[in-house]
Amino acid sequence: MPTKYIVVLGSMMSGLGKGVVTSSLLTMLDFYDYKALPIKFDGYLNYDCGTMNPYRHGEVFVLDDKSEVDMDFGIYERFSNRDLTGDLSITGGKLFGSVISKERKGEYLGEDVQIIPHLTNEAISMIEKVEKSRRPDVIVIEVGGTVGDIENSYFIEAVRQLALKHPTTFINLTYAPALEVVGEQKTKPAQVGYRLLLQAGIRPDFVICRSREKLNEKARAKLALFANISEDKVIDDSDAQTIYQLPLHFMEQGFDRKLLKALELKGGLNRKKLASWRSSVDRIVHPKHSIQVGIVGKYTDLKDSYASVKEALVHAGAYNDTEVNIQWIESTELENGDALTHLKSIDAILVPGGFGNRGIEGMINGIRYARENKKPYLGLCLGMQLMTVEYARNVAGLENANSTEFNRNAKYKVIHLLPSQRGVDKKGGTMRLGLWKCRLSKGSMSRRLYGRDIIGERHRHRYEFNNKYKGILAKSGLVIGGTTLDGKLVEFVEWKDQFGVSTQSHPELKSRLASPSPLFVGFVKAAVENKS
Ligand code: GLN
After folding, report:
1. Same domain (yes/no): 386, 368
2. Do residue 273 and residue 308 come from a single domain?
3. Based on the domain organization, do 463 and 355 belong to the same domain?
4. Beta-carbon contacts of residue 415 (< 8 Å; ≥ 6 apart)
5. Atom 7 in ligand 1: which residue has the minimum CA distance?
6. 508 is known as an active-site residue
7. DSSP output for 377-392
8. Probe ligand 1: pick from 62, 360, 385, max atoms within 8 Å of CB?
9. Which of 9, 61, 252, 507 has its CA 20 to 30 A from that of 67?
């Protein structure tokens, strides 16, 4: 069977949730046991997301294979429960880079190299390579940006041409704003969006419409008329209580059957998968318990920079039938002792990953507060390094211990640069990245939570636990919860008699609704218990 293609294009404006729509298509196809893979096109000229500022662009997502990709890949994985790979991310940077390097090699000898056909052909061949190497049933291509942007115009031309060779279904995501006073849903901006799409030579097979309230019939009729489609091909995507409802909401409208028909696929529904998704969603919408988790970080203004942490808490909450309310605590506010009163009403504390000096002492104060007041603590990457620093300073008596990232001249350098990082001066793709295996120590809390001794989690860091201090820290009670298989790098650190666990890795990157991260599950459970 040839691979079928779906292309998702957004019009009118960004921020409509194209990633969630694309992911919901993946989930629906998975309910029918189809192997569906996403491909994301991003128009920026960066090769990948590794050098972007999370404060501006949102979280940098890391895959098993070390790729640093757009945060949409996080949504794809959380919805499809599939480990994805870097070749599914096509950026402007990769396309231009590849064409220019071919030109230098002489592969286009004699030609003048152009956007069409050279760049567009390059895009098509990157897409076809995924089809050939992975043989998925369906490839869902999300085109980043909005129709009408210069940045994605050549890519839209590429998918137009792709559809000449491969069975392709086009989906336009649009928006029907309602004016405050009259409350009427307006379709004129969506119509302008269609026009741009038609100008590009693409006619949508389905229109998905975002709106605050459910799409009304009048608006639906207009959206159908101007897109040249029947009304049943206009799909409602009005505000939901949780993004994980969207695949179910689509199916209530029969979108699964309609889409399969358009793709000429005849699969049967896997009722078990559907039921388990539905029950997770039920527990998110009607939870039994409720807790307050304080996240002490420095990008708390832009929640997108911690998207995976946020979602991992939703998954662990669903598992524990618990609503997890997040209190975002700007770490600089914890720098003087008084600020610690901020933490009183909180059931558990989490310090996520991060880089750079600002707010570090506030995070350390937060961790100390958790330890001294027996609040459950979860540390992720930087959160593990600082748990080590806090313990060294306040329990092991290593005064002013620090990470060399924050004080090169600290007397006790309990966290220092990874040996493999010494002498590295290039910034792109040079950190310790991707999936690394770890052996969890016998009797450790981490091993109990994972229920296994060998695990794999994703990484993105330059600094590590300094083994020189392993002995003295362990002697004063810090538990080494796990190391790399060769025993050389400490990967998990724990407190002994209370819930405090942290890891050099980013377990949030592997947490999915259908398989939540064991560390987060344990953390939320501990918080519920601590509260009662
Ligand atoms: N800044 C720390 C390091 O580079 C932690 C990185 C992180 O939290 N991702 O090791």
Report:
1. yes
2. no
3. yes
4. 385, 388, 389, 402, 403, 404, 405, 463, 464, 465, 466
5. 353
6. yes
7. EEEETHHHHHHHHHHH
8. 385
9. 9
- pTM, two decimal places: 0.96
| Structural domain count, the chain | 2
What pLDDT is stored for residue 380 in this prediction?
98
Is the predicted pLDDT of residue 204 greater than 90, yes or no?
Answer: yes
Phi, psi of 318 (to 5 degrees): -60, -40
Q: What is the CATH number of the domain that holds 414?
A: 3.40.50.880
Give the number of the atom of ligand 1 that is nearest the alpha carbon of residue 415: 10
Q: Return the ∠ at Cα 402 (arms to 478 and 347), rounded to 5°.
A: 55
Q: Residues 368, 515: one domain?
A: yes
- pLDDT greater than 80 at residue 431: yes
Where among 280, 315, 343 does a domain terminate?
Answer: 280
How many other β-carbons are positioned within 10 Å of the β-carbon of residue 186? 16
Residue with CA nearest ligand 1 atom 6: 461
Q: Is the pLDDT of residue 181 over 80?
A: no
Query: Do residues 109 and 257 both lie within one domain?
Result: yes
What is the 170 CA–ligand 1 centroid distance (Å)? 40
Cα of 348 vs centre of ligand 1, distance in Å, is 22
Q: Is the pLDDT of residue 222 over 70?
A: yes
For 76, the domain range is 4-280
* Block residue for tokens 């090699």: 105
pLDDT at 301: 67
**Cα 299 to ligand 1 centre (Å):** 14
DSSP annotation of 305 reads G
Q: Are residue 118 and residue 263 in the same domain, yes or no?
A: yes
Instruction: Determine the pLDDT at residue 257.
Output: 97
Which residue among 61, 461, 502 has the greatest number of ligand 1 atoms within 8 angstroms of its CB, and so is best to mutate?
Answer: 461
H helices of 54-187, in order, are 54-57, 72-80, 92-105, 120-134, 153-165
73's CB contacts (< 8 A; 6+ apart) are: 38, 40, 61, 63, 84, 88, 89
* Pocket probe mutation, ligand 1, options 462, 465, 502, 509, max atoms within 8 Å of Cβ: 462
pLDDT band at 381 (very low <50, low <70, confident <90, very high): very high
- pLDDT digit string (tens) for 59-81? 999 999 999 999 999 999 999 99
| 154 and 256 both lie in a single domain | yes
- Whether pLDDT at 341 is above 90: no
Same domain for 153 and 175, yes or no, is: yes
Active site residue 506: yes
The ligand 1 atom nearest the CA atom of 464: 10
Active site residue 461: no
Task: Say if strands 463-465 and 413-417 run parallel, antiparallel, or are unpaired.
Answer: antiparallel
- Asked which of 228, 249, 280 is the last residue of a domain, the reply is 280
pLDDT recorded at residue 419: 87
Q: Which residues line ligand 1 (CB under 6 A)?
A: 353-355, 381-382, 405, 460-463
Is the pLDDT confidence value at 436 over 90? yes
Distance between Cα 429 and ligand 1 center (Å):
14
- What is the model's pLDDT at position 55? 78
Residue 75's pLDDT is 98
Which CATH number covers residue 88? 3.40.50.300
